[in-house]
Amino acid sequence: MKYDLKTFNKEVDYYTTKLRDKVKGKVTFVTLDLNDHKAFYSLAPLSRAIHNLEGDMHVMVIDENKTNLDILKDIWYAYDDLTRRKLKTRKTRALKRFIDSVDKRTKTKVFKEIFKGPDIVLKAKKEGFSGTIELKYCYRWNIKYRWNELLETSYKIWKHGYDLQKGEKAGISFVMVPSEKNTELPLEDYLDSYSLAMAMASAAKRFKVNLRVGSSSDRFSLLAKPVRTAELITTLRGCELSKEVDEDVFKKYKAFSGLMRIDRMDLTQAGFGIHAKGYYGKHFFGDSIGYPSLDKKTRWSSPGQLMLKDRYEPQTALEKRDPVMRYAITETLPIDIFIETCNVDYDKLRKRSEKIRDIFNKCEYIRVIGEMIDGHKTDFRVDLTSKDGRRRLFTAQDSDVRTIIDQEYYKKTKIKAGAYANFPSGETFVTPESVHGMMVGDVVINIDRSYVIPEKSPIIVEFTGNKYKVIKAPKQIKEAMARERGEARQKINDIERSQSLPKDIIRIYKKNFWNIGEFAMNTNPKAKLCNYLIVNEKIARMIHVALGLGFEPDRKTMYHWDIVVNAPRQKLDIYGVNKDKEVSWVLKKGEFVA
C-alpha cells in the first residue's frame, strides 16, 4: 500500500475514541475551506470512524461562495423556531404550510424530518475541527503520489473533456470511507479517491471557476433514507426548479422560498462525480410527488434528472426547459489507472470511436461470434432496425461534455438533451432494437459496485429478442442482481402507487425491466484490465453489453448492468451487415481490422 495504513488506523482509532457514544444514528455536518488540505485529508479517517460507529456524515467544502450553506443554516433556524421555540413568524408559518401540504399530498407525516439541522457540527479551523466537539486533524496517513501527473490528468479532463470556462459553476462529489463491514472495495482505492478529488478541484481552480465540493454517506439499498441534510438540499433544488407549477405543494413552497430567498441557490453547470459501492438512497419528494415540467406534461423523479435532461429520459422530449448542466463520472480508481487511462489524446480517442460508429451505423445488424472456451461460447446477433424501418444509431460521445447540450443527439433529433460522459472514456454504443443468442461475460459487471467475474466461472446470459435470462453466474453476483432487481421493482411500484410519474413512463419502466439496454465496442488503447467496470468497459477490442436501461427514451428502466466480454480471449469475430448483405468487419479473432 502506498499510504501509511498503520497511521491511518491509528487516526481512525483517535476519532473513534473521541466520538464513541456521540454519533450513532446522528448526522455529523462538516464544513471546510477548499485550500485546507489537512482538514480535507482528515475526512478519510473521520468518515471511517463515524461509519464504524453507525453515524452519518455530510461534508461541504467551501470555496469563495457560501450561499448554499447560508440557505441551509437559515432553514435550520426557521425549523428550530417552528418546532422548539414555537415561534409564529412569517417564515415559520410558511414552512409549516409547505410541510402540511406535502403531508396531505403524500398521506404521510415524515417530510418534516429533513428540515431538522445536523446533530453535530464541525468547522475546520487552524489546528483542527471545532464546534459541537473539538477534534484535531488526522491527515498524516496521506502521502503524495504521482501528484504532478494526477494534476496534469485532471487539467486535461477539464480542458479537453469539459472545455471549462472562467466563471462557470463546477461541482465535484467524492466518496466517504465506509465502515469496515461495508468495505468491499480496496481501502487504498478509497484513499486514492481523496487525492483524485483534490487534484480535480485544484485543476478546476486554474480555470477561475466557482467551485463546490461535497459528499455524504452512501446507502447500500436503493430504498434506504438518504442523509437528511443532503436530502434537504436535493429537495430544495428540485422545488426551486418547479416553484412556478400550478399545484398546491409548489405554491406553498414558492411562498416559503420567497421569504427565505432560496433563489440564491447555486446550480452546478459542470459536474464531476466519483462513485464507489452504494447509492444516494430513496428521494422521498421525487418518488412521492415528483418535479413537474412547467406545463405539467411530464414529471421528473429528481432535480438531477431535470437539470441534466439526459438523452435517455422519456421526459426530455416533453420538457421545454433547456438542461442547465453537463455531468461525468468516474469510480474510486487507483491513481495509476486513472492517470494511464485518462491522460490521453481525446481528439484521437474520439476519432477512433467515431470510425467504429460510422461503420456500424450503415448496418442492419451486427454479428458477434466467439470460440468455444470451457464449454461456453459467445454467439449473438444485435438488430439495429425495427420492422417499421426505425433505426437505432450508435453514438461516440462518451468523452465529450464540452457543451451543456449533447451536440450529437441534437443534430439527430433537434431535442436539447444534456451531455453526459465517463472518465476514462472510449466506446461507441447503441441501444439495440433486439438481441438474440448467448453471451459469455468474463471480465467485470457493475451492479451496486464493480464485481470481477472469474474466467472459470463466467456469467452466461441468453438473449431472446427483448428479454434476457441469466443462465449462470457466480453466487455473489447472482445475489447482488436479485437484491437490486427486487429493490428496483419496489421503487417502480412505489412511484406507480404515488403517481409521481406519468403512467406512460411507468409503462416504459415495466416494459424494459428485462430488456437489453446496450451493446458497445470499447476503443481506449490505454485502458487495461482492473477491478473496475468504468475502465474495463473502455479496453480497446473488448465489448460490453448492458442489461436493463437503454440509452433511448423508449428504453428506460430502473437499473443498468454493464457486463464486459474479453474479445481477445474469446477470439471474437464482430462484423456488421447492411441492407445489401454487404459485410463490414470490425474485429477478427479479437483483433481490430477496422
Structure, described:
The protein is an alpha+beta fold. A ten-stranded mixed β-sheet has the order 5-4-3-1-2-7-6-8-11-14, with helices on both faces. An eight-stranded antiparallel β-sheet has the order 20-19-16-13-12-24-25-26, covered by helices on one side. A four-stranded antiparallel β-sheet has the order 15-21-22-23. Helix 1 packs across helix 2 (37-52), helix 2 (37-52) runs antiparallel to helix 6 (187-205) and helix 4 (90-106) packs antiparallel against helix 8 (248-260).
Summarize the structure.
With 594 residues, the protein is of the alpha+beta class.
Helix content: 25-40%
DSSP summary, beta strand count: 26
- In what range is the share of β-strand residues? 15-25%
Stretches where pLDDT falls below 50 for ≥5 residues? Answer: none
Task: State mean pLDDT (0 to 100 scale).
Answer: 97
| Radius of gyration over C-alpha positions, nearest whole angstrom | 24 Å
Largest sheet: 10 strands, mixed
Tally of separate domains: 2
- Gap between N and C termini: 41 Å
What would you call the shape?
Answer: globular
Strand order of the largest sheet: 5-4-3-1-2-7-6-8-11-14
Structural class: alpha+beta
How many distinct helices?
A: 17
